[in-house]
Every structure is written in C-alpha cells, then in structure tokens.
C-alpha cells in the first residue's frame, strides 16, 4: 500500500493562518508589525527564489520584511557590519542570512553577527546549544519545520530509531539533536559512512538531508518506515520517491513537503521573537514603596 503523504503545503498553510491571527493581535497590542530582515549576498538564482518566497509569505501573514540584497563582492567584515547594524536596530525582530553565501565569505562569522535574540532562522551557536540542551530558543528552521510536520501527523518519535543522512550545522546535526530531544535513538550518516544501505534498512524514521538526487533507494526503506526528504538538487529530492512510497508508512513529497515547513517555521519564530522582544521592552512594574 502506498504511503500517506506528509503534506507540508497543507500543514504550513494552517500554520500561516494561525500566525496571521497572532500578527493581528500583536499589532493591536503593540501598534506595529513584526519585522524580518532578509540578507542575501550575490546573484544565485535559487537563493533569490528562496528569499522571494520568504518575503511573499511574510506579506501573507502580515510580517513586515526588509530586504537587503548585497553585492557578490562584499567581504566578510562588511557583511558582518551590515548584520551587526540589523542586530542593533530596535525596529528589527528577526534576521535571516540566506545560506549559502559565496565561498569567499566566512559564513560562520556572518551567522555569529546575528544577535541570538533575533536568530529566527536558528543558525547561531547560541541557537545550536539551545537545541542540544533542549532549552528554550530558536530551532534551525528546516529541522524545526520537519519536527512540526511529523507532529502534525502524530508520528511517534520516542524510542524509535531515526537515521539522519547529512551532518551540516544548519540541517543534519540539529535535526538529530531535535529528534534525540524527543527520545528517538539517532544515527548520523554522512559522506564517509560505510554501508549507508544497512543503516537505512534498520531505520524507523529516515531523514535525508544531503543534496544527492535519488541517493536513497526505495528498496532500502524498511516497510512501514517514515521517510522525510529535505534534499533539493536539480529539482529532485534525495529519496527515490516512486519506489520509497510503496514501502513507507509516511513520506514527504518533493516539492511540497519540507520546503514550505521551513518557511512557516521561520515566520513562526519571527513572530515569537517579536513577542519576546516586545515583552522584554515593557518596563517591569516598580514596587509601590520605591515610587
Ligand atoms: P551540505 O552542507 O552540503 O551537507 C550535505 C551533507 O550530506 C554533508 O553532511 C555530507 O557529508 C552529506 N553527504 C554528501 N554526500 C553524501 C553521500 N553520498 N552519502 C551520505 N551523506 C552524504 O548541505 P545542507 O545545507 O545540509 O543541505 C542538504 C540538502 O538539503 C540540500 O539538497 C539542500 O538544498 C537541502 N535543503 C533544503 C531546505 C528546505 O527547506 N527544503 C533547506 C536547507 C537545505 P560530509 O559532512 O561528510 O561532507
């Protein structure tokens, strides 16, 4: 029997509708809209498309976006200055630096220029630590979106064996940490893993986050496993969907699975960031005796 689709479009649409109502409430109380600053370096067409989609979705829920498209020739120091200014700007609630930046830029340094309180895409070391220690904080948007998608379908995680393929700082590693935080037993695979097939054959949950189209073959998937495909290269996912759909219990389509959830999570965290900052800026009441 074919797997049930984990429909990221439908789940994210419901999330965006709820966010829209929260943004209206926020405006009523604080007299302004949450603000997301997007920073894009260079002319990569895919990155331009992703930023355009994020800005469009902001408009749909009422978040105000401020777009900073920077010349490909910018250096790390200048990029960090731009991001530092946005971090210090009291009118900005969240900052997104579109990944990847051109190779001559130190992306980690640029990420770390984001004030952790505005790190609504979950890319700083502070956010990483919060995910690792299961503390309050911002999740990396894609892993956070994947978790929200699994939760929307009540996929049980505790005690299940999850295999995460990929170990990047913004996707694979935090994905494993979030699953571990939900009591899954986690195995990481990467380019030096031997016998990838054997690991996948034992997995109750497979999260592919690689960027190699069709890497995971359907016949490797354990019958009844849950398959999440975060990969996106050449307009294709990392999983051979047509064969995997026949064995899995749940599976994400590509596109329409993980991508929309990433954007919805970014926006949800922008609204949460704005709410937190607004709450923090309200001066605490003084005790009567000190007035
Ligand atoms: P990345 O930084 O290039 O990391 C890729 C990971 O895959 C690395 O850990 C690499 O291992 C591993 N890998 C490469 N070849 C492998 C192989 N043959 N077998 C097993 N593992 C292999 O990429 P990323 O930023 O994490 O993104 C991964 C994919 O997700 C890309 O297709 C990207 O477009 C997509 N993505 C989608 C969204 C979304 O919203 N849908 C968001 C972000 C990214 P090593 O560490 O050993 O090199």
Automatic annotation (TrEMBL):
InterPro entries the record matches: Aminoacid_DH-like_N_sf (IPR046346), NAD(P)-bd_dom_sf (IPR036291), THF_DH/CycHdrlase (IPR000672), THF_DH/CycHdrlase_cat_dom (IPR020630), THF_DH/CycHdrlase_CS (IPR020867), THF_DH/CycHdrlase_NAD-bd_dom (IPR020631)
Domain called Tetrahydrofolate dehydrogenase/cyclohydrolase NAD(P)-binding: residue spans: 140-277
Gene3D superfamilies: Leucine Dehydrogenase, chain A, domain 1, NAD(P)-binding Rossmann-like Domain
Claim: Oxidoreductase is one of the keywords in the record: yes
The keyword Transcription belongs to this UniProt entry's keyword annotation: no
Organism classification: Bacteria, Bacillati, Actinomycetota, Actinomycetes, Kitasatosporales
Endpoints of the signal sequence: none
The organism of origin for this protein: Streptomyces bottropensis
Pfam families given in the database record: THF_DHG_CYH, THF_DHG_CYH_C
Role description: Catalyzes the oxidation of 5,10-methylenetetrahydrofolate to 5,10-methenyltetrahydrofolate and then the hydrolysis of 5,10-methenyltetrahydrofolate to 10-formyltetrahydrofolate.
Protein's recorded name: Bifunctional protein FolD
Chain residues that bind NADP(+): 166-168
This protein's UniProt keywords: Amino-acid biosynthesis, Histidine biosynthesis, Hydrolase, Methionine biosynthesis, Multifunctional enzyme, NADP, One-carbon metabolism, Oxidoreductase, Purine biosynthesis
Family: Belongs to the tetrahydrofolate dehydrogenase/cyclohydrolase family.
Catalytic activity: (6R)-5,10-methylene-5,6,7,8-tetrahydrofolate + NADP(+) = (6R)-5,10-methenyltetrahydrofolate + NADPH; (6R)-5,10-methenyltetrahydrofolate + H2O = (6R)-10-formyltetrahydrofolate + H(+)
Subunit architecture: Homodimer.
E.C. numbers: 1.5.1.5, 3.5.4.9
PROSITE patterns according to UniProt: THF_DHG_CYH_2
Residue span(s) of domain Tetrahydrofolate dehydrogenase/cyclohydrolase catalytic: 6-121
HAMAP family tied to this protein: THF_DHG_CYH
